Amino acid sequence: MMRKTKLFMDTVVDIRVVTGHSISEEEIEMKINHAFDAFRKVEQACSRFNPESELMRSSREINKPIPISPYLFEPLKFALEIAKGSNGLFDPTIGKLMENYGFNQNYLTEKNMESTTDTTATFSDIVLNEYERSLLLKKPLVIDLGAVAKGFAIDLAANELKECDGFIVNAGGDVFAGGINDKFNRWSIGIQHLYQQEKVIDCVEISNEAICTSGSYERRSAKNPSMHHLINPRTKRSENHLVSLSIIAPFAMMADAFSTVAFLSGVTKSKEIVESTGVKGIFIKSDLDIVKVGGI
After folding, report:
1. What is the pLDDT confidence band of residue 165, given thresholds at 50, 70 and 90?
2. Which of 20, 192, 235, 274 is the most buried (most CB within 10 A)?
C-alpha cells in the first residue's frame, strides 16, 4: 500500500493506493501526484477565501461575461443545477451570509475576506453560457462552492487513479473508494462518532462509490457559537434536525451536494430526496439514533 497526504482546501487529503503487479510503484506515485494536482487546481479556481482565485477575480465584473476554466465552470454548473432543483434551498450565492457569520478566514494566511454585495442576490443572478464557457453576474455577490468543489476535486483525483487495482481519496472524511483493498475486499469506511472524535459510530463497505458527510458538530461560527456552517439561505439560520447525514453516491460531487441539500431539508424531506434520487443515506440524530435509507 502506498500512502501520501497533503493539505488542500483547509483539510488533510489522504490518498492510499493498493500496490500490485498491474502498475509499477513509479507509475502509482506519478498518478498520486497528478491526483493531488487536481486538488490544487480546483482550490485555485474555486476558493472564496483567496482574493486571487479564479472565482473571486471573475466575481469583480458585473454584467460582463467572463470566460472561466473547466475547474470553475463544472462545479458551478452543478451547483446551479442543484439550486434550481431544490428551489433555492441550496444556493451558491450564500457566500456573503457565510462571511457575516465568521466563515471567511483563509486557512493559510489567516486573513479575513470582507466583500461588498447586494444582499438580495440569489442563484438566479448567476448566468453561465455553456457555449462560451463564461460567467456573468447580474449583481455583486459572493459565490460559495464549499458544497461541491471538494467533491469535484475528489472525483478528478479518483479519475487519475482509476487504473490502479484499488485506492482511496479521503479529503477530511469525504471519500471516494475505488476497486478493492489490499485484502481483496470492498473498502470499509468509518463514520466519525459525533461526540467522541477518536471513535467510529458506524461503518459502510463501498467500492467505486463516494461517501460524503454533512454535520453540525465540526465547524461552528466564531461570531455566534449556536450557528454552524450548514445554513439555510431562506431562514439564514443553521438547521438542527439532524447532527450528521452521509450520502453514498456514484460520484463525490453528487454525494457532497446531496448531503448538504438533504441536511437542510429536515428529516422527512431528506429521506424523500434520498429515495427519489437513488442514492443511499445514513442519518444520525442528536440522540445517536441511526437511520439508513436507500438499501444500505
Report:
1. very high
2. 274
